[in-house]
Amino acid sequence: MPLYDFHCRSCAHRFEALVRPEQGAPECPACHGRDLEKLSSGFAVSSAEKTQAAAAKKRKKEAAVARRDNIAMDIEAEKHRLEDH
Ligand SMILES: [Zn+2]
């Protein structure tokens, strides 16, 4: 269900409304006007937040993997050093 932010041009009220295709455009809950401006949708904002959270999680995971690889390389280097002597 698409959730949209609306701005009423008649009374400057801002509100969120679910838009059902069969009901048509919503009306302002404050003044019942229909001179509404559709703003960026709440759905789009929440999915953008989700994408950002996923990207942050991915970066964290990549950093953890990089650290583990560094440790593995250190162990390998140490082994070679010991073998040389
Ligand atoms: Zn209004």
What's the short version?
With 85 residues, this protein is of the alpha+beta class. It has one helix spanning 42-84; strands spanning 3-8, 14-18, 36-38. The chain is built from 1 helix and 3 strands; from the N terminus they run βββα.
Ordered list of secondary-structure elements with their pairings:
Blueprint: E1 3-8, E2 14-18, E3 36-38, H1 42-84
The protein binds zinc ion (ZN).
Describe the fold and architecture.
The protein has a 3-stranded antiparallel sheet, with no helix packed on it. The longest helix has about 45 residues. The mean pLDDT is about 80. About 5% of the residues are buried. By secondary structure, the protein is of the alpha+beta class. It has 2 domains: about 40 residues; about 35 residues. It has 1 helix and 3 strands, in the order E-E-E-H. The radius of gyration is 27 Å and the shape is rod-shaped. Strand 1 and strand 2 form a beta hairpin. The site of zinc ion (ZN) has 8 residues, from loops.
